[in-house]
Write a structure and sequence with these properties.
Blueprint lengths: L1 H22 L4 H5 L5 H8 L1 H9 L10 H11 L18 E6 L40 E3 L9 H14 L2 E3 L14 E6 L15 H9 L3 E7 L11 E2 L6 H7 L7 E2 L10 H15 L3 E5 L5 H10 L8 E5 L10 H6 L4 H13 L8 E5 L5 H10 L3 E4 L1 H6 L22 H4 L4 H26 L12 E5 L3 E4 H4 L11 H12 L11
Parallel strand pairs: 2-11, 3-4, 4-5, 5-8, 8-9, 9-10, 10-11
Antiparallel strand pairs: 1-12, 6-7, 12-13
Helix pairs in contact: 5-16, 6-16
GO biological process, one term: glutamate biosynthetic process
Organism: Streptomyces tabacisoli
GO molecular function: glutamate synthase activity
Length: 514
């Protein structure tokens, strides 16, 4: 009897659904194929998951392949992150693959197997310009800009605690410095075009509010965001469903409405006024000040380098974001087709400063899928001094690449403000995973630099990596990107200094925190 009742109820439900499908006019598929047509929409909904786990090969999916995700997950969980039986990449015929050229003999090297091995920057951030609070960053790997709002409070908490455990810095993102950023990790405060956290009632930049924010948190540097790789020239976008009352209060905006930042700054209008703004912030706070930008037309960079060559004004660091970088929400054309990929964009920016002999005068930071050892090694060979990781850090705390960041329906609770979904993020345990991933990436980079025969990734040169063109040609990075002799390399003084720092006895190591 019970089974008969259940069957009758199910039949009634199916009949109601079929009747609704037949009379509705929105979906032709359902009108022609009632009930069964819903299977198509179900498969479309779980398409990313099907491709991840069933359809694609280990090295096929984008943005991150199964192999890449597996390496990050295993590293974060302190599991075996080795791969057996050999590569499944088509190394014989593939075009564009990077190969590191190992050396038979090496100079002094640090302990390549110590999970706690220090790996500080080869440059002092803010040192060349004499900033009052200049310091040597303790880690060449740091957490990139991801705002509270784009990420949940639990995710930001986990990342900040992970940064503290790993001794890295954590960029706040343009959404302002939230309570979730105050869990022990050192911060880089990002200032975007909306000046969240340091704006007046009319939305204009407020120096007094900026100084108050800096005074009340462990802010180590300030980054002025000009653009980002996934949506350059567009400004940030936080969809309305993610703008909770809490986020609205932190940012000073209406709750529940789309938050679209302007595409450009109002506190300055050209390179000359931007440098005045940089010097003002540095003088008032004592902190190193830099810029973050994607790379498009080059006249901006050429003018910046030309003005910096005078020596009276300048940025302390430049963060170059590749067009393959991530975002919580962006139009498809911006994600796919606006701004240069990292390697091409960075090499053009670096060359602009190298032509004027300025590469030792500022720190170069790279971002855009650089949280993988191979990509990071290439970046350091091109002249990067530090890298920022974003989506890789998200993966380390549980992201499954569901690609639902823009819908507020992230199934793992990382890129959503839904309380029900956010409860899945256990911040303390996820913090440990983030820290372990960051440490593992540093250790892998030490191993790669050791294979090349140098003590630090910044000592890998463009001549140490070849780019393959099928099975018939290989060219060095220097040749591919038009680098001249000495470009991409540290000056002898900086090279000797960082080598001595890493190969000294542990008791002799200085405090790198500033």
């Amino acid at each position: 009897m019970r089974a008969r009742n259940i069957g009758a109820a199910a039949a009634t439900v199916l009949a109601v659904v079929a009747a609704r499908d037949l009379v509705q006019k929105k979906h032709a598929l359902l009108r022609n194929f009632p009930v069964v047509g819903h299977a198509r929409y179900l498969l479309e909904t779980i398409g990313p998951e099907l491709r991840q786990y069933v359809v694609t090969s280990n090295d096929e999916e984008r943005p991150f392949s199964r192999d890449q995700r597996s390496w990050i997950y295993a590293s974060a969980k302190e599991e075996n992150n080795y791969f057996g039986f050999g590569t499944d990449n088509d190394v014989e015929h593939v075009q564009g693959h990077a190969y590191v050229k190992q050396r038979t003999f090496a100079g002094p090297l640090p302990d390549l197997h110590d999970p706690q091995a220090p790996l500080p920057s080869a440059k002092v951030l803010g040192g060349p310009r004499g900033r009052a609070k200049a310091f040597r960053p303790a880690s060449i790997v740091n957490i990139s800009a991801m705002s509270f709002g784009s990420l949940s409070g639990a995710a930001v908490t986990a990342l900040n605690k992970g940064a503290a455990l790993a001794g890295t810095m954590h960029n706040t993102g343009e959404g302002g410095l939230s309570p979730y950023h105050r869990n022990g990790g050192d911060l880089i405060l990002q200032i975007g075009t909306s000046y969240f956290g340091c704006r007046d009632e009319d939305g204009n930049f407020s120096l007094d509010k900026l100084k108050a924010v800096v005074a009340g948190a462990p802010v180590k540097a300030i980054e002025i965001k000009l653009s980002q790789g996934a949506k350059p020239g567009l400004g940030g976008m936080l969809p309305g469903p993610k703008v909770t009352d809490e986020i609205a209060e932190i940012r000073g905006i209406p709750a529940g409405k789309d938050c679209a930042s302007p595409s450009r700054h109002t506190a300055f209008h050209d390179v000359d006024s931007m440098l005045d703004f940089v010097e003002l912030l540095a003088a008032e706070t004592g902190l190193p000040v830099g810029i973050k930008s994607a790379v498009g037309e080059m006249s901006f960079w050429e003018e910046l380098a030309t003005l910096m060559a005078r020596g009276d004004r300048g940025v302390d660091f430049v963060t170059v974001d590749g067009g393959e970088g991530g975002t919580g929400a962006a139009p498809l054309i911006f994600s796919d087709s606006v701004s240069l990929p990292f390697r091409m964009g960075f090499s053009r920016v670096y060359s602009t400063f190298a032509e004027r002999g300025l590469t030792d005068e500022l720190t170069f930071i790279g971002s855009g899928k650089l949280g993988l050892p191979e990509n990071a090694a290439v970046a350091f060979a091109l002249g990067v001094d530090m890298i920022n990781v974003a989506r890789e850090a998200m993966l380390s705390i549980g992201c499954i690449q569901a690609q639902k960041c823009h819908t507020d329906k992230c199934p793992t609770g990382i890129a959503t403000q839904s309380p029900w979904l956010v409860r899945g993020v256990d911040a303390p345990s996820k913090a440990n995973r983030a820290a372990m991933y960051l440490r593992t990436l540093r250790r892998e980079l030490l191993k790669v630099s050791g294979a090349v025969g140098v003590a630090h990734p910044s000592l890998i040169t463009p001549a140490d990596i070849d780019i393959m063109n099928g099975d018939y040609e290989a060219r060095t990075l220097a040749s591919v990107y038009g680098y001249k002799d000495g470009w991409g390399e540290l000056s002898p003084h900086l090279a000797q200094e960082i080598t001595a720092l890493l190969t000294a006895e542990p008791a002799a190591l200085p405090d790198t925190a500033g």
